[in-house]
Amino acid sequence: MEAYCLKCKEKREIQNPQAGFNSRSTPVTTGICKVCGTKLYRMGRTEMHEGLVAPPRVKKEIKRKGKLVIVESPAKARTVGNFLGKGYTVRASVGHVRDLLRSQLSVDVENNFQPKYRIPNEKRAIVKELRAEAKKAEEIFLATDPDREGEAIAWHLMEAAELDEERVKRVVFHEITKPAIEAAFSNTRIIDSDLVDAQQARRILDRLVGYNLTPLLWEKVRGRLSAGRVQSVALRLVVEREREIETFIPKEYWSIDAEFKPLGQPESFCAKLSKINGNDPLLSKLEDVEKLLPKLKEAKYIVGAIKKGKRTRKPYAPFITSTLQQQASRKLGFTAKKTMRVAQQLYEGIDIGNGGQTGLITYMRTDSTNISHVAIKEVRKHIKDTHGKEFLPDKVNTYRTKVTKAQEAHEAIRPTSTMNLPEKIKSFLKPEQFKLYRLIWRRFVASQMQAAIYTTISIVVNSENATDDYQFRASGSELFFAGFLVLYEEAKDEDVNEKKNGKLKLPKGLEKGSEVKLFKLSPAQHFTQSPPRFTEASLIQALEEFGIGRPSTYAPTISTIQARGYVERENKRLFPTETGILVNDLLIEYFPDILGVNFTARMEEDLDEIAHGRRKWNDLIADFYKDFEPKFILAQKEMPEIKTEPEKIGRNCPKCGNELIVKWGRFGKFISCSNYPECKHTEPFLEKIGVACPKDGGDIVLRKTRKGRIFYGCENYPNCDFTSWKKPVKASCPACGGILVTKNKKEFLCLGCDEVFASGNIAIEEAA
């Protein structure tokens, strides 16, 4: 038997060999070199080891110290780490660390719909680092977001990083402030498997729908299309609204206003014809009005009633996700995606000069209007000190959520401290952060203020000695006590017609029974209006009312249907494209129930049942797939191919001479050579609006910034630098001949002389 001798530098025979085992229980043989006497050592089992029993392997005791905290984002990690201090190591997972495979369905339909997860390549280094950190830590805290998504991320971290369950604790906080974090770390819990199952069920449902329907659309229509369980329902709402508008037939109707004067007085007041013989007047055409006017003029009139009173207007509830997105859209012009991005920044923490980052708002994905007692106490003190006792209600204002089934016990979206006044911290915030924070702050403070009070007055004027009974009515209101309105007023979409009663001033001495003289009749023609197109705000409102989606899904859903080219946003309005209408009609024809509003809403309720431990996720998926699979197989066989010919642009490729065509990519339309893949020439797609550039006469085209914001510029850029955020129109300025752009729904603005013109007074040239 030989072993390598370090002194002789070659193998030598082992003299007096002794079989044994090392500290790791590995068989070894020791002895001395026959030539130089140096100790020799050989690893491996030999015949001499027969009958020998290896001693038990002694595990090396790992010395652990410190506490590891894992959150989702680096920004959140910095803020949380700032509050925890020494002894804590805070690391970020940078979102999900595990997901379904992208290259396959990743759901084992035959094995009770078990998902197949993998760690994406770009996350392997992060997971490796977290695993190494976890081995050294005495305790591990998973501090991901306090919703189903956050619970699922925590569970995936456990699995992917192979964390020791005995050392892992789940911490949940709804705001990133020192008191909230201290309270959370004092009240740890285990991972809630019901919340994880609810999120897993949603993910698998979305994969079963999207992974099957998307290739179907690629095969039957064209590539780069997609379908989804929630996004397709949102698209359906937009398409159906467009069809309502297209089929709407305006109906004519008339109203009649009258001006009355009390006998012997110069002052007058106006009232509207409200009843004829106790019924609403039916004046559908001019002939009806012309027949009625002489009868009204002949009648005598007296005051039938005068009623004075007060009306209160209660403040609005603090923001939840949907109402924040709606008001940010209407007041600030933010898209839902931008609102959530900026809100995330405010939540995760910003340095406001207090020696580190601090969270400025509570968690922004919530459908609860609850407010903590600490926050209530602080805001009531602020209202009393700043506005006075009269603006503070005797009891705390409480609100019930309008959402059918609000999810976990979150708080409303509010400032983490009312004392962080918007103007006080403005210098530390970006403009968009300041605008959103001020909106959230004002809404919250206003929600705990006294109601506004209006004085109201109404008057009824009745006819006397007439062939028919005519009744005219007028009402008005005036703000008596501003209450919460000193701080906050709700914004509405432009086309929402709310009846607003202005100030009504009645002549002195007018009372019930007073005779009044008809001074003037003013008939007016009207037409019924079609329902308005959705804005992002009103679409979110509709999704919430129908129970479709959840706070975390509103923004991505609306972004997706625009990114796929199904819906376009112009002047805040959502228009379905031809592709959007085509895809919607095909999906509705073959999957009418699955992509129906009621079905999707019921599915959300079922997911809530899983989250509360009242239903198994596998059973829900099985029930869904039993209905979905046969319809999908039928669609594969019978759905017609509607692939259109490539759109030619009328030019040849400058590289190879073949025709250039329009194609769709990940980011929308682009121009490509028809000889692809042999020729890879591409150009950006420029959508002309039919208006000439005022600088060089080129066509003005629609363009988009990197963040998707629409603007208008010359097709000859960079040789011509004309740009405008507002859409130019095919008309010249009456004052200077410059180019006009759309300022708002009713006005045009001249870019040359800054004059503003009513759109009704400008003649728009027809496109050639």
Protein topology:
Elements: E1 2-5, E2 10-21, E3 27-33, E4 39-43, E5 67-71, H1 74-84, E6 88-92, E7 99-100, E8 107-108, E9 114-115, E10 117-118, H2 124-136, E11 139-142, H3 148-160, E12 168-170, H4 178-186, H5 193-220, H6 231-247, E13 252-262, E14 269-276, H7 286-298, E15 300-313, H8 321-332, H9 336-348, E16 350-351, E17 357-358, H10 373-387, H11 422-425, H12 431-447, E18 452-464, E19 470-481, E20 515-527, H13 536-546, H14 554-563, E21 567-570, E22 573-576, H15 578-590, H16 597-611, H17 617-638, E23 647-652, E24 659-665, E25 668-673, E26 682-684, E27 687-692, E28 699-704, E29 710-714, E30 723-724, E31 728-732, E32 739-742, E33 747-750, E34 756-758
Parallel strand pairs: 5-6, 5-11, 11-12
Antiparallel strand pairs: 1-2, 2-3, 3-4, 7-10, 8-9, 13-14, 13-20, 14-19, 15-18, 15-20, 16-17, 18-19, 21-22, 23-24, 24-25, 25-26, 27-28, 28-29, 29-30, 31-32, 32-33, 33-34
Helix pairs in contact: 3-5, 5-16, 5-17, 6-14, 6-15, 8-12, 8-13, 9-12
